[in-house]
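Q: Sequence in, structure out?
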Amino acid sequence: MTVNDAVAKRIAALLAEKKMSQYRLEQRSGILHGSMACIMNGRNKTVTLSTVIMLARGFDMTLLEFLDDEVFTAEELEVE
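A: Exactly. Output:
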């Protein structure tokens, strides 16, 4: 699993947990719809730290809270 895949999984889990739409997250985080679509469908291969910070803020959480998930500690996570 790539880092982008892990971020997409985390986004999907948080959207479900918080009962939030992807559109609302885009509005709250400032991430454009096209960029979010690329993250969620795997077309984006390099998610930047800035984007992850924006996502965390969109979920009203800290960066550490966003990254505090087993998906980011999995041994099969590909870090390039």
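The two ends are 11 Å apart (CA to CA).
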